[in-house]
């Protein structure tokens, strides 16, 4: 009788594992369809393994969140088939150690009284979320985002500007397209070249291409810029 009980427990355990494997495989197929993913046979095995490990991390975190140990939940987005090292290599294109020191630093005006908080979305100074794709162009998005916000605050006109122009055209100033760059070098380029086009006239391509900047399509010009000291809450 004891042997039968042990056998039943083993069968139940195997059945549970088999059922979970089917469920995870179904999730994998749904996830691939959702984000339009396709791989070669060899690559699929690798990506499926990485995706499975990330799924375990997400599920464990969410179990802890249900117990009140976290204030947020995680989900499986389009980057779930990448390792952390791969993600950082692809998307961390900002070269902080190379920031030039000769630029002016912002000086706080002590006579201006500022609110405790501000949400620039409420003031229509932030465009909808963009996606840099698999190109290390975060530096271009940072530069463009600051210009979009400054222009909107100044003119009350919110315009989505071209990151692709910076990716393609600012190598002379030291930027390296999808391999990284700096916001300061981007501003220098825009000062020298005469301005930046909109996203509509120079759309993002998720890769480096030949520069096709057209001065007649400039919508915003950059006259100057200053650095903000790291950690300065007053700035």
Automatic annotation (TrEMBL):
Gene Ontology process terms (BP): proteolysis
Keywords: Disulfide bond, Signal
Signal peptide annotation: 1-19
GO molecular-function terms, A-Z: cysteine-type peptidase activity
Repeat recorded as keyword: no
Protein's name according to its UniProt entry: Uncharacterized protein
Source organism: Adineta steineri
Protein family (similarity comment): Belongs to the peptidase C1 family.
PANTHER family hit by this protein: CYSTEINE PROTEASE FAMILY C1-RELATED
SMART domains xref list: Inhibitor_I29, Pept_C1
Start and end residues of each Peptidase C1A papain C-terminal domain: 114-235
Superkingdom of the source species: Eukaryota
SUPFAM superfamilies: Cysteine proteinases (SSF54001)
Domain Cathepsin propeptide inhibitor: from-to ranges: 28-87
Entry annotated with the keyword DNA-binding: no
InterPro entries: Papain-like_cys_pep_sf, Peptidase_C1A, Peptidase_C1A_C, Peptidase_C1A_papain-like, Prot_inhib_I29
């Amino acid at each position: 009788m004891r042997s039968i009980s042990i056998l039943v427990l083993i069968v139940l355990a195997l059945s549970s594992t088999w059922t979970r494997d089917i469920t995870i495989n179904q999730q994998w197929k749904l996830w691939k369809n959702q984000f339009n993913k396709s791989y070669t046979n060899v690559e699929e095995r690798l990506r499926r393994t990485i995706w499975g490990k990330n799924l375990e991390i997400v599920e464990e975190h969410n179990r802890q969140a249900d117990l009140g140990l976290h204030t947020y939940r995680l989900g499986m987005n389009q980057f779930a088939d990448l390792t952390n090292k791969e993600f950082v290599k692809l998307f961390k294109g900002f070269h902080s150690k190379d920031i030039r020191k000769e630029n002016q630093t912002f000086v706080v005006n002590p006579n201006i009284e500022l609110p405790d908080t501000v949400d620039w979305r409420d003031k229509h100074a932030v465009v909808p979320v963009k996606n840099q794709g698999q190109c290390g162009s975060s530096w271009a998005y940072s530069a463009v985002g600051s210009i979009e916000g400054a222009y909107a605050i100044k003119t009350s006109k919110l315009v989505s500007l071209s990151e692709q122009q910076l990716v393609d055209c600012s190598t002379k100033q030291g930027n390296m397209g999808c391999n990284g760059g700096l916001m300061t070098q981007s501003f220098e380029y825009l000062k020298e070249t005469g301005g930046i086009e909109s996203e509509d006239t120079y759309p993002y391509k998720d890769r480096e291409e030949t520069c096709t900047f057209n001065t007649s399509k400039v919508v915003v010009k950059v006259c100057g810029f200053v650095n903000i000291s790291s950690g300065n809450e007053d700035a």
